[in-house]
Hints:
Blueprint: H1 2-16, H2 37-67, H3 71-97, H4 106-150, H5 156-178, H6 186-203
Helix pairs in contact: 1-2, 2-3, 2-4, 2-6, 3-5, 4-5, 4-6
Amino acid sequence: MQHILTSTDRALRTVFAHHHANRPNPANGIPDTPLNEAEKRESAALMRVNHVGEVCAQALYTAQALATKDGVLRKHLQTACDEETDHLAWTEERLKQLSGRTSLLNPLWYAGAFGIGFVAAKLGGDAMSLGFVVETEKQVEAHLQSHMQGLPENDLASRAIVAQMKDDEMRHAKEAQAAGAAELPAPIRGLMRVAAKVMTTVAHRI
């Protein structure tokens, strides 16, 4: 019951609360260079997609922490959740500076990712659960790399945030791999890429 209450609390805070980072924002101290309206809209759209990715990561980790019976793994997943909260806070702050907003579909994104994470953990066990973490982080890293290319050249603040997020996601994937992640079958990896494409396309606008 305690784990269920903790998971419910984290879900509500992820979707509805204002987030506070434990680490300094990577954009701190970087001059906010002028952007024209088109550049601001594109930067805001990309940062909204990044925010949705972090909402989904929170859901995935929370679901797997709830499903596992391994206390050490649960602690590992909860620590990763805390780091993803930093990402939520950074992207929210940048969206506000860009006069943007978070996705209106965040409750749906969270519910979908939570369901996938929980089912994977229950049906495939801890190794499969960690495999989902590895694949998710790899795909997020790839999206962040593409966003580094898509952001306006002079949007140095957004670039600094995305660069730090990319480093964190790479580390999370390596840690999950070291913890005993199983390689996911190719069809599952393909389905995850399709789902990610749908999410990023919709979140770019809504």
